[in-house]
Design brief:
heterodimer; A: 251 residues; alpha/beta; Oxidized Rhodanese, domain 1; 43% helix; B: mainly alpha; 3 domains; 33 helices
Chain lengths: 251, 624
């Protein structure tokens, strides 16, 4: 192996691999600026919560989701609420704050943490890979008001588009934030952001079958179970608006 | 209340015999001081708890087996003691562990009773109905009409216990989801589900029971799709579900099936583009031993196999005899104290003469480099299942990078081959002479084309091997050198031609139908095996490992050797050079130490690498 391996490795493979990696790094992701908050993993959060009783840990999901299941001893505060009114956070800007959400990408916890950093908080943390990581570590959860899981049928984007054309009794309910809804939505969909749904769901008419839409299809199930509990007839779009847009682009 | 507690205690002391077993089970999970079921049913007196529960599979467990945290029934009644959340994992530990990875838990926080809704009345499920029950449960939410209409779903509902229910592919308590919104979706999901399909479809007993072939998996694994999939390609290559779709898996004859001839263009078109419709005659699971179904492939397989076995058998036989002769001969000379003239050379005999000009030496180095690159990138794909294949592929930076290097080296080799062809034409039709005397040059002593003398030499060598005569006297090129040279032409036709077709199969389909790709793949693979084994065993031996040259002959790298060696190895050429007065112009200085060192390093390195690859290849060939 003496000659060829050294040759292929050093002269061919390594530079090529390096270039490949550099290209990936350059094209795949924009150059990453250091995050303005600390990212902590689940065991670290658990240790912090055990040692610091005053630690403020925020679940940035909607109230419906947070009360259904959250990390024990944490508070419910949707990221939209923080962005709208940062005074909901404690006055002491040097307090340790932790934000987490229910996705491995931490999109919502980062929004919450971003708002806190912008408001001048210095000790901001985000739970790496969010609640899924907490659960996979085998740690327990806490339930305040559990929503009975319903049988919420899901429809594929293509089927939904056919159903919209055929059925008049459907009401498309877009659960995404106001801004996402404004950027673009399915024609005829009404916007009931999930973070406020527990307060204004009663405005949704009861005489139609609801089709719930969200970003990626992860959140409509629990929202659907909640609305079913409240007496609505509900369906959900499989894969959310992402699937809808992919279908629309594929046409 | 006090009296009730007493009665309860009495009752507990006098357990009926039928409850003994239950008590034994309960002991495992039940804290001993907890109230018995009857105590709970005093208040919780709905029929579900009183009747259905006592008939359920959990009847042997007390209420507090699951609803833990109640130690005193009075405190509970007063609201001072509340049961802890139910944790089925206390008993069902394995499932609880699996469940931590379940998508329904991680993303939707499902708890056991969200699927096992009738938990208080739950009864053991008839083994034969589990699959149907699973489908019914999953489709409560997942309205996959295409699954329930498909081959698997339909068969399960008809009572087939082998057909896949939802959980056979997706897992039951460890349901994994490769969410379409995540980047790792295509590669990981394809790998995961392809393994699931293979698990059943390679099971010969199960397939035989269902009148299906268990060979489909092996045939697929023999194709480019299957091999790249096995190596772990980071970019798309067809796994099972890519062609057969995920849920709507139906036999070819069904017009709704993705592999129905009418749907093939769209099906293949999801990955391939720019192909002629005849591209679709490519066979995704070909069996080249099936003479009826794939006659062309069968004939190719026989031909390539015959060529491989025939060539190797003949030359290995030739090599062994040759080695035997030289070894014995050397032994005799050693005993008698005779030194070979080339070693004992003095004076004029030490003079170096040129055999290979710089140009040809460089070409040989390029050939060595491109050949090894091709072998090191191609064979991991040929033996994708072998452990070493993955290691080598990773060294290249993945199968995709290995593929790029393979094509790069192929390009170098093709250019080199074109140059050799050009040189050969120049040799035959030199400037000024044109076509006159080309036949004489073709069959002359400086030509690499075989002639009658080669046949005589071959015969002479065999006689010599068996001590029936002197070794034949060679001119500039021996018959085995001519074979090496011409074999590359054949090899380049076979392996290069098939390789170019496979380079961009969509474009090739404008020239040849898809089934030719199956043949091209077979030819490419078998010819590669022949070429690698030929070079690493026969060429290496004839040129380097023969006892009087062992461990290597540096001639191809330094370009010169002693006049005495020329006289010994190519006596006729020497005589010709002397007669034509050309010898003087071929004299060169002794190669310098740097050149010798580089030659030795490169040469020995290549030889060692080749031998190592031979071991790996033979290992995979014989034991994989």
């Amino acid at each position: 192996m003496s000659f060829m391996s050294r040759n292929t490795l050093t002269r061919l493979v390594m530079p090529a691999a390096l270039m490949f990696t550099l290209t990936l790094a350059a094209c795949g992701k924009p150059a990453e600026a250091p995050l303005p908050w600390k990212v902590i993993d689940a065991p670290t959060l658990r240790a912090m919560m055990a040692s610091d009783k005053d630690l403020l840990v925020f679940n940035t999901m909607s109230e419906i989701e947070c009360l259904d299941h959250r990390i024990p001893g944490t508070k419910c505060l949707a990221c939209e609420e923080i962005e709208k009114n940062v005074t909901l956070l404690p006055a002491d800007k040097n307090r340790d704050l932790v934000f987490y959400c229910e996705s491995a990408q931490c999109y919502r916890s980062c929004r919450g943490a971003g708002a806190a950093v912008k408001a001048g908080y210095t000790q901001v943390h985000v739970l790496d890979r969010g609640m899924p990581a907490w659960k996979q570590a085998g740690y327990s959860m806490e339930t305040v008001e559990r929503i009975p899981r319903g049988s919420i049928p899901s429809v594929r984007a293509a089927d939904l588009s056919r159903m919209i054309a055929e059925r008049k009794d459907l009401l498309l309910v877009d659960l995404r934030s106001e801004s996402s809804y404004r950027e673009g939505h399915v024609e005829g969909a009404v916007n009931f952001p999930l973070y406020r749904l527990s307060r204004n769901y009663a405005e949704i008419p009861m005489d139609r079958t609801l089709v719930l839409l969200d970003d990626r299809g992860f959140r409509t199930f629990l929202a659907g179970s909640y609305l079913e509990m409240k007496g609505y007839k509900v369906m959900r779009l499989f894969g959310g608006m992402q699937a809808w847009q992919e279908m629309a682009a594929g046409k | 209340m006090e009296s009730m507690k007493l009665t309860a205690r009495k009752r507990r002391c006098g357990l009926p015999a039928g409850w003994l077993l239950a008590a034994a089970i309960a002991l495992v999970c039940l804290p001993s001081a907890a109230p018995a079921a009857q105590d709970c049913q005093f208040c919780h007196d709905e029929p579900l708890y009183r009747v259905d529960f006592s008939r359920s599979i959990h009847a042997g467990n007390g209420c507090t087996s699951c609803h833990t945290g109640i130690t005193d029934i009075e405190k509970h009644r007063d609201g001072r003691e509340k049961p802890a959340p139910v944790n089925c994992g206390i008993c069902h530990q394995e499932i609880a562990k699996e469940y931590l990875d379940n998508f329904h838990y991680i993303q939707e926080d499902f708890r056991c009773s969200d699927c096992h809704r009738d938990i208080h009345a739950i009864k053991p499920v008839d083994r034969k109905k589990i699959k149907i029950a699973t489908i019914e449960k999953c489709t409560e939410c997942h309205g996959n009409a295409d699954y329930t209409a498909s081959g698997h779903g339909e068969a399960v509902l008809r009572g087939n216990q082998d057909a896949a229910a939802c959980s056979d592919c997706h897992g039951l308590h460890n349901t994994r989801v490769f969410h379409t919104s995540l980047e790792q979706y295509p590669a990981e999901a394809r790998e995961f589900y392809t393994q699931k399909c293979k698990h059943c479809h390679a099971d010969s007993v199960m397939m035989a029971r269902n009148n299906l072939s268990d060979k489909m998996v092996a045939y697929y694994e023999g194709t480019y799709h299957g091999k790249v999939q096995e190596l772990g390609y980071p970019a798309p290559v067809a796994g099972c579900g890519d062609c057969h779709t995920r849920h709507n898996i139906l036999p070819k004859e069904d017009p709704r099936s993705s592999i129905n001839p009418a749907n093939l263009e769209a099906n293949c078109g999801r990955c391939h583009s720019g192909f002629h419709p005849r591209f679709l005659s490519y066979q995704a699971h070909p069996d080249y031993t099936d003479r009826q179904k794939y006659p062309a492939l069968y004939v190719t397989f026989l031909f390539m196999g015959g060529l491989l076995v025939g060539t190797l058998a003949f030359f290995w036989f030739h090599t062994v005899l040759w080695w035997r002769k030289v070894y014995w001969e050397n032994d005799r000379m050693e005993r008698e104290g005779i030194l070979p003239p080339s070693v004992a050379a003095t004076g004029e005999g030490l003079q170096q003469v040129e055999r290979f000009s710089v140009k040809y030496r460089i070409m040989h180095v390029l050939l060595v480099l491109s050949f090894f690159t091709l072998v090191l990138t191609g064979f991991p794909l040929k033996y994708a299942g072998a452990a070493w294949a993955g290691t080598i592929t990773q060294l290249w930076g993945g199968a995709h990078m290995a593929g790029l290097f393979h094509r790069g080296a192929a390009f170098v080799l093709i250019v080199g081959m074109a140059y050799v062809t050009w040189e050969s034409l120049k040799f035959l039709f030199p400037r000024g002479k044109g076509r006159t005397g080309w036949l004489g040059r073709l069959l002359g002593p400086d030509s690499l084309f075989p002639n009658l003398k080669d046949l005589q030499d071959l015969k002479g060598m065999f006689l010599w091997f068996f001590n029936r005569g002197e070794a034949p006297k060679f001119d500039r090129w021996t018959y085995w050198e001519k074979f090496d040279f011409l074999a590359v032409f054949w090899g380049m036709f076979a392996i290069g031609g098939s390789g170019i077709l496979l380079w961009k199969p969509e474009w090739s389909s404008w020239l040849v139908p898809g089934w030719v790709m199956n043949i091209a793949a077979l030819v490419h693979s078998e010819e590669a095996l022949l070429a690698a084994l030929f070079i690493f065993t026969i060429h290496f031996f004839n040129t380097h490992f023969i006892p009087n040259k062992f461990p290597m002959d540096r001639l191809i790298f330094t370009g010169t050797y002693r006049i005495e060696e020329l006289k010994e190895q190519r006596p006729l050429e020497y005589e010709r050079l002397v007669a034509e007065g050309r010898l003087e112009s071929m004299k060169r200085g002794h190669p310098g130490i740097p050149l010798k060192l580089i030659s030795a390093t490169f040469g020995l390195g290549s030889l060692l690498l080749g031998l190592m690859l031979t071991v790996l290849i033979l290992w995979s060939l014989l034991f994989a």
